Amino acid sequence: MNVTTWILQVLEVLAAVAAAPLFLGWVNQCRAWLQNRRAPSVLQPYRNIRKLFHKDAVIANNASPLFRLAPYIVFGTMVTAAAIIPSLGTRLPFTRAADAIALVGLLATARVFVSLAAMDIGTAFGTLGARREMMVGFLAEPALLMVIFVASLISATTALPDISERLATQALGLYPSLAFTAVAFTMVLLAENARIPVDNPSTHLELTMIHEALLLEYSARHLALMEWAAALKLFNYACIGFALFVPWGAAMQQTPLALAAAAPALILKLVIAGAGLAFIETISAKLRVFRAPEFLATAFLFAVLGLLVHLLLGA
Amino acid sequence: MTDVFFSPLSLVLAILLAWLTIGVAGLLRPNNLRLTRTLFAIGAACGVALATIAALSLTSPTEQYVLVLGLPDLPFHVRRDALSSVFLFLLGAASAGISIFGAGYFRQGQGTAPGLLCLEYHAFLASMGFVLLADDAYMFMVAWEAMALSSYFLVTTQHRIPEIRNAGFIYLLIAHLGAIAILLSFGLLQGGSWQFTFDAMRSAQLGPGPATFAFLLALIGFGAKAGLVPLHVWLPEAHPAAPSPVSALMSGVMLKTALYGITRVTFDLLAAPVWWWGLVALTIGLFTAVFGVVFAAAQTDMKRLLAYSSIENVGILFTGFGLAIVFKDVGKPMLAAVAFTAMLYHALNHAFMKSLLFLGTGAVLHATGERNLGRLGGLIHRMPWVGWLTLVGALAIASLPPLNGFVSEWLLLQSFLFSHEVPRPFVNMLLPLGAALLALAAALAAYVMVKFYGVIFLGQPRESALAQAHDAGKLERIGLVWLALGCVVLGLFPTFVLARLSSVGEQLGFSGLDLSAAPWWLLVPLSDRETSYAPLIFLGAVTLLVVLTIYGVRRFYHQRVRHGPAWGCGFGEFSSRMQDTAEGFGQPIRHLFQPFFDMKRELPTPFDAEPRYRVVIGDRLWQLIYAPLGKLVQLAANSVAWLQQGRISSYLLYSFVTLIVLLALML
């Protein structure tokens, strides 16, 4: 039984790593449809990654080993995060290694390494990107922690799988606090994954770019890993959202059958979430970078409001 | 008889004496650098011995001696219990790394001679040890003052520079304000028995009024030493002034003696703290944490930045302290134990990581002669040892898993998570909001550390002179490696550390943490709530995945790499001036937290022939509190200045009148 659960764990992680670019492709496709454009294939992110892997890496003369190591570290942390987040099943063994707070810490580690790597070459855009990324991060991280806090208060634990199980199994009730935090979480998700209105993933506009500025010096396989990690990050955030707000459908046994049965529910949630994400991105305008802190401060306030509402109403 | 000689307490005393002896030995040949270096190395060995003894004696029974020293009828009492042992361990372990670094660091300069420095340094170490052992108010104050004075002389090593003399004076002033408050607090604690031993204070029955006053005075006194807002002003002045090993010692270890003091007074001498005291400490602590980190983000001097980061960490420590009081008084012993151990854990962590960072800046300072972040950059190429080891400290203090800063942060957040169970209206709603501030401070700390590390070690050198920078010497490397190892070990084996810290809590009336339910690699602080964290598994998984990814990429794809100049975005000239400066990196924080700062900007107009941009960041509290206070003192001094006539006859008259008045009072 022990061996099977670990095999299942590995399979779940591999599935997440493999499916992440597809999810990104789906979001892009929905976005194109909503904006009346012809969509690229949903497989386009895979093609991009494959193309990048085959290119020759160009590295600046003054790059330090940190620069070359960072993509691997970032990719590794994102895969670890995928193992911690209960996407398919809540009873997989690795989910115990870290609770939700540690998960936030793990995501912060990835962010710090991306930013440090961006500062390594010493170009104007790299440091600019690092500064903006950290600016977004220092507001988004406490907001995310508060979101998790509210969910933890409701379920009396900080372990993500337990939160998910408890919210899924208790009688269907109205949680006004969760409504507030869901709004906060969505805002954090948009900001952390460099989506509109905080950043636009499809431009290299120097005045506003964050994510692209960070990766400007990367090429070939390093860029491929960074892009793949970014796709995985979006996937991970979506799965955190599912675990907190729509926990139904995840497997609560560690049998292969239960996990296989949970897959359609997850796919359905991802399809809807991707479309929703594209919808939000289509109806909102890109904010000036100066306005991004206000956007995130609002998210933080929403999360704190959720906490207060929970403490006041006990729900 | 042998028991007395080889008991942990006597061994600790022997080491403190050894430190004093080393210090005096330095005076034999004050200008002999080789002798001083050897002495520092021996001092480091003493530190290791102290840490070992303290760690082994953590669970052994409390010991008490009366030393036949001191004034007649006022002998020195010493006592070693678990709380002392933890802080002695901190002192020994952190100072070992700092001393061995110092052995390679101190050289002949324009300031104090190396031999004298050796005396001041080791007297500082020994006095901190005596503070931790003191068992009566008299000895405590003597050691406390010795600590303040020796560190004052260390801060003013470069005493020929006026700014440094100024910084030293501010430090001395606030240290003494604090000492007065502590003295008054002890005066209240003796409770009318006029016995100033800590034993008498433990048994004294204080009413709620005196107890509260004693606590508040102790909070002010120890808060001044620790750097709680608004008594923090000496930290950003003294730390840049002091030589780096001294900054490391002051920030890493001396601030913790203040934490020891307040813990001793509150949980041992007062025994039954009231919940709202905790609320006071918690509020000040949280404000200090956010204040410190916001200011750290705006600094351009690397040691000032670290000083503000220390203020932040002191805030976090006092937050844990306050939380422990609240939980203890409202009858949540398990949660109180978690908050208390989190505080101790963070004290240990901060000792290692902050010392590491200060020593890193020391190495940079030696290699480049620059403290200004605007003139550094790209040093990871020239100084790989310092660069990579400092990275460990920076990641740890940014509280990133799996390093040590994260563990204490995690424990503190866990205890905040249950703060809604406090059975007091309003308090149970406001307390969880503290977690939001704590999370904000932690996230900002990551911002600060990316700035600190990125600007100093990454990017391109901002000055051509940096190309000549040399890496740290062998002894300095040993010191850095020692402290970095401390950060890693404390991060990876939290269950071992917590089991020992929990026994400290038990001696002070907290309940013990039950860690036995979970396997040793899994940290489960509260056995009835399912929260767990396994740093080893964590690190293992990330490392495995990184290795697998590297292997996979190598296996399936070619490894062709071309090196070329960085892309200048189409601009012809690509220079290091295009990088973000430290001011630039702090800009979003200055913008967001504008009300915190007292900012003076000099902006160029479009028509300036030589445009200049300058921004000076000041502390509003300085204008709000200290400047008026200084004026007041000046006014008072001026109004009594007419007494100073400069004639010996009038001074004789003053003494005569004083004598008469005193006699009249006595009779």
Task: List the defining traits of the structure above.
heterodimer, A: 315 residues, 11 helices, B: 667 residues, two-stranded antiparallel ribbon, 68% helix
Number of helices of chain A: 11
Q: Could you name the ranges of chain B where pLDDT drops below 50 across 5 or more consecutive residues?
A: none
**What overall geometry of chain B do the principal axes of the alpha carbons give?**
globular
Shape of chain A: globular
Largest sheet of chain B: 2 strands, antiparallel
Oligomer: heterodimer
Instruction: Please tell me the total number of domains of chain A.
Output: 1
Helical percent range of chain A?
over 70%
Q: What is the string of helix and strand elements of chain B?
A: HHHEEHHHHHHHHHHHHHHHHHHEHEEHH
Tell me which protein chains meet in the greatest interface and how many residues each side has: A-B, 78 and 82 residues
Detail the topology: elements first, then pairings.
The complex is a heterodimer of chains A (315) and B (667).
Chain A: H1 2-34, H2 44-54, E1 57-60, H3 65-84, H4 100-120, H5 124-155, H6 160-169, H7 176-192, H8 211-214, H9 220-245, H10 256-283, H11 292-313
Helix pairs in contact in A: 1-3, 1-9, 1-10, 2-9, 3-4, 3-9, 4-5, 5-6, 5-7, 5-11, 6-9, 7-9, 7-11
Chain B: H1 2-6, H2 8-26, H3 33-56, E1 63-71, E2 74-80, H4 82-105, H5 114-133, H6 137-155, H7 162-189, H8 198-203, H9 208-226, H10 235-241, H11 244-269, H12 275-298, H13 302-329, H14 333-368, H15 379-382, H16 384-397, H17 404-417, H18 427-457, H19 474-492, H20 494-507, H21 535-556, E3 561-564, H22 582-592, E4 597-602, E5 614-619, H23 620-639, H24 648-666
Antiparallel strand pairs in B: 1-2, 4-5
Helix pairs in contact in B: 2-3, 2-5, 3-4, 3-5, 4-5, 4-11, 4-14, 4-19, 5-6, 5-11, 6-7, 6-11, 7-9, 7-10, 9-11, 10-11, 10-13, 11-13, 11-14, 12-13, 12-18, 13-14, 13-18, 14-16, 14-17, 14-19, 14-20, 16-18, 16-19, 17-18, 17-19
Task: Give your account of this protein's structure.
The complex is a heterodimer of chains A (315) and B (667). Chain A is mainly α and 315 residues long. Chain A has one domain. Chain A contains eleven helices and one strand. Chain A is globular, with a radius of gyration of 19 Å. The model of chain A has no long low-confidence stretch (mean pLDDT 87). With 667 residues, chain B is mainly α. Among the domains of chain B are: 241 residues, no CATH class; 74 residues, no CATH class. Helices cover 68% and strands 5% of the residues of chain B. In chain B, the strands form two sheets. Chain B has a two-stranded antiparallel sheet. In chain B, strands 4-5 form a two-stranded antiparallel ribbon. In chain B, helix 16 runs parallel beside helix 19. The model of chain B has no long low-confidence stretch (mean pLDDT 88). The chains are: A mainly alpha (315), B mainly alpha (667). At the A-B interface, strand 1, helix 3, helix 4, helix 5 and helix 11 of A face helix 16, helix 17, helix 18, helix 21 and strand 3 of B.
